[in-house]
Amino acid sequence: MENKRFKYSPITKEKDLDILIEEIGDARVVMLGEASHGTSEYYTWRTAISKRLIEDKGFGFIAVEGDWPECYAVNRFVKGYQNSGRRIAEVLEVYRRWPTWMWANWEVAALVEWIRDFNHLRQVQDKVGFYGLDVYSLWESLEQVLKYMEQRNGKAAEAARAAVRCFEPFHRDPQTYAQATAFVPTDCQDEVVQMLEQVSRRPVYPDDPEHEFSTTQNALVAVNAEKYYRAMIRGGAGSWNVRDTHMMETLDRLLEFHGPNAKAIVWEHNTHIGDARYTDMADDGMFNIGQLARERYGRDQVKLVGFGSYQGNVIASRSWGAPMQKMDMPPAREGSWEHMLHGISTDDKIILSKDLKAIPELQQTIPHRAIGVVYDPKMEHFGNYVPTVIPDRYDAFLYFDETEGVHPLHMKVRGGREPELYPWNY
Question: What pTM was computed for the model?
């Protein structure tokens, strides 16, 4: 459809994704964003796009903004590994760390069911995987390494035990650890690095190659999580950059593990997948996985797809660790990207960045909505908008005029205070 301002394509059914799939072309990495962590349409349409990429273009795994141990449990389930679980809802109970609704929801359950069915009759090497890119799971990753290496490698197990002992005085609380090491020059950095070195030297067990990869990944998570929490207490851009560097390193490792022809789908917030160089994040010395992937693989091999909406409701919390709730999401701020799209038409739509290049006002920054896990609708107009050069930050954008909150599985939240000092909630 041609508008007086720019061209867009209405999106109402999966067939309407053809224009986006064509734009993706032969890219090796496709990153699918979201403007909140609690919007149903973002999950549903990312699932629809992922299915097309897997079926039509041979993409081999989905990597998400979630922790490695929990997501690996889902990976085992979708691949039908022994003792990996029988019911999807039970498997998703692994997501007990707040905010549980990000991955323990019915929209993700539908994706998991589809991947498992898709994998059912395929050889192990052809099964689609599901992995976590994030860095928060310090304790869980340490425990996974120790449990596995006690069965396999005595020297590596002792290194893992030493790392666990080092963290024990902090009572499984990364914030306590971060605060303690801010004032006392004693930390567990050496222990986790030595553990990673020992795990990396382990013998290879060809009967279970993916579990070996997972063990090394958990050790890497522990190293980078320790670094992240120490950086967090100092403030500034350091902890953000540690986190996104870890995500990029994990994506690199997954692509290498799956072979030279591997293709990856990434699900993360727009603040991670949208190239940070074209936002005010760059002014603060921050970068993200979208930028790093473009720099590493080239813009023709990496396609960044943003998501956003004008109004509706969303699942979020009032403060860190608070109960989830459905909140009204007011109409987008005047002058914002979302307000502009609503003014053009109330159609749900796909916009390709190449069709925006001739529009002068889009070659400079405009406000672009971003809602995190902590949200206050009454304060939205004083924040929640990232100055963005839209055509450069993304390769394509999916807009939904009115959206609904994601549908959580309503599980008990496992305690976890670690992000309290973290100034960004994406």
Answer: 0.88
What are the beta bridge partners of residue 9? Answer: 350
Domain housing 421: 1-65+263-426
406 in Cβ contact with 101 (< 8 Å): yes
- In 3-state terms, the chain is what percent helix, strand and coil (to 5)? 50, 15, 30
Tokens (6 digits) for 165:
């002992």
Task: Express each pLDDT in 200-244 by its tens digit.
Answer: 544 443 344 588 888 888 777 777 777 777 776 666 788 899 899
Tell whether 327 is covered by a domain.
yes
Question: Which tens digits make up the pLDDT trace of 310-332?
Answer: 999 999 999 988 999 999 999 99
pLDDT in tens, 53-84: 999 999 999 999 998 989 999 999 999 998 88
Structural domain total, the chain: 2
Crossing angle, helix 106-119 and helix 40-57, to 10 degrees? Answer: 10
Segment 327-357, tens digit of pLDDT: 999 999 999 999 999 999 999 999 999 999 8
Q: How much is the pLDDT for 210?
A: 85
Output the domain CATH number for residue 374.
3.40.1660.10
Q: Are 267 and 232 within one domain?
A: no
CB-count burial class (<10 Å; 0-12, 13-18, 19+) for 5: middle
Whole-number Cα distances in Å, 420 to 132, 229, 231, 306: 21, 11, 13, 27
Q: Which residues contact 82 (CB under 8 A, 6 or more apart)?
A: none
Residues 342 and 221 in one domain: no
Residue 25 lies in a domain: yes
Residue at 84 is within a domain: no
Claim to verify: residue 207 and residue 326 sit in the same structural domain: no
| Terminal-residue alpha carbon distance, the chain | 33
Q: Is residue 39 part of a domain?
A: yes
Helices 174-183 and 209-234 cross at an angle (nearest 10°) of: 50
Same domain, residue pair 298 and 403: yes
Judge whether 141 and 69 are in contact, CB under 8 Å. Answer: yes
